[in-house]
């Protein structure tokens, strides 16, 4: 292999181990009850978490912590109709802020973690939940590196086998393509074993080698683990069939190779984005076709560069190259078509093409594929003119450049499958909007008022929920509420908003913000016929 192809492989591998956060989340917390930042009157018996796709809880990694720092969840979450339910123990719990910290596995096998707070009675200082959040940096690098190794192994396995079956000259020794195919087989197997191992620390948030036998057993018994075990079985079958590929296969061996290839390739989309996307069956089929076309085209280029163009004579090249060129063009068409179908579904809209990391990675991949096709057009022109058989070194250089750029495309693909699909951007935005709000505590010599305004956006429907306490922290009944908002910079004078006493020290009402800006919120509370006090705070409205 030329020095620049070796440099491309190791350069891309180096880029993958650079410190970059590529393992993004794929499931999104779309709703919860209680919702983030909400103040409820009493602690519920259970907390419900709703996600935009099916999820599976990581054992021992979801907790609910009370204001006193004690864990309140009774075991792990249980699946519900549209998410997970966390059962809580004990009804008499202290007033204050609670933390919900969760870690789950999304439908596409990626770990997702997050946390939020809600309050019972009134907000307080949030406790610290001692659970891992996020993914260990080494695992965040190792997972896409294993993906890259798997893709690289696929092209080394599929392309040389197809070359042996359809175009390789009978008189030439089959040593080089068989070595390439065996190297691909070993690389895919190693990548699969690495993926099985890394799933445990990726799920728990631990370091790469901080894996217990129980965690590894859970991974192997999970749908993700069973699918990867199926991939290893397909690789074992491919190894046996590869040993029989000493000449062009008959229909039986060809059929066995095809069935084994389809079964093995199906394990990639079944553990990735397609299985969790809309139109899952279509995307799984498109991804299998995409991988097959990728392996045949890029792997065929490697076999062509490493063996055929180096050893075949001009008469053989005149027969091989036109046929290979036609099949490669068909493979590229299917590769692009299947990739386009996946991109359209996973992006969800044009805005996510530039508004999400996934969309930007798709743009980079598309640009690299266009560059490969530009070089391929030069190679095809050489074949059509017949100059490739007269001067195979020139074609070999073009094929080498084509393969080197394609290897970089594989690296981008390895990163792409770890990013959150663009279709979830709107879901995340909606979840963020639901989590917005304004909460604070204002004090005066007479009282302390803890309140939230939700969602603190332009419009008529911003709820106001408040609790009033004495300076000593005891509930303080309110005789009358007066709440106004003003926007002096726009000349808007104070506007009254209705707030009523709900139960003793608790007030509930509605606030209108006609436009965006830095509003002034003024609260005047009358405690008795002779005692009242006013507090004020700025509030940014978006």
Content-based structural category: alpha+beta
Please provide the count of β strands.
18
Figure out the total of helices.
Answer: 14
Radius of gyration: 31 Å
Q: Which segments are poorly predicted (pLDDT under 50) over 5 or more consecutive residues?
A: 1-25
Q: Approximately what portion of the residues adopt beta-strand conformation? A: 15-25%
- What would the average pLDDT be, to the nearest integer? 80
Largest sheet: 5 strands, mixed
Could you tell me how far the N terminus lies from the C terminus, measured between alpha carbons in angstroms? 58 Å
Anisotropy-based shape? elongated
Fraction of helical residues: 40-55%
What can you see in these coordinates?
The chain is an alpha+beta fold. It is 49% helix and 22% strand. The protein contains 14 helices and 18 strands. It has helices at 3-16, 137-166, 175-204, 213-221, 223-243, 251-266, 273-276, 280-311, 314-347, 351-355, 357-385, 387-390, 392-416, 425-435; strands at 29-33, 39-40, 46-51, 55-57, 63-65, 78-80, 83-87, 96-106, 111-120, 438-443, 448-454, 459-469, 480-487, 492-497, 499-503, 506-513, 517-526, 532-541. Strands 2, 4, 5, 8 and 9 form a 5-stranded mixed β-sheet that branches. Strands 10-11-12-16-15 form a 5-stranded antiparallel β-sheet, with no helix packed on it. A 4-stranded antiparallel β-sheet has the order 1-3-7-6. A hairpin with a 4-residue loop joins β10 (438-443) and β11. α1 (3-16) runs parallel beside α13 and α8 (280-311) runs antiparallel to α9. The protein is elongated, with a radius of gyration of 31 Å. The model is unreliable at 1-25 (pLDDT under 50).
